[in-house]
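Anyone have tokens for Helix-turn-helix transcriptional regulator? Sequence:
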Amino acid sequence: MNAKAEEPLVPLDSGHSKLPIEGDEQGYSASPYLTVPQAAAYLRVSKNYLDKLRVSGTGPSFVRLGRRKVLYRKADLDQWINERIFGSTSQYGH
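Reply: yep, here.
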């Protein structure tokens, strides 16, 4: 048996995550665009939660192609997350 060492999905020391994306032979997507399920996995939230954020206008920026196709840029996801970094619960409103 070949035991393959498992890499962390999100290296804490880097500015960019390396998240395995389905359909990519190397396990990482080279495209800066993610589908809704891929973006949800990247953010570690459910697809339904990401859909609700998109409808309410409180989620990350997205790209709409046609009536149904929605994509997210990795840079927009990273920016959205970085805007939500707090040092204390008193720093954000409820």
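Helices lie at 36-43, 47-56, 74-82.
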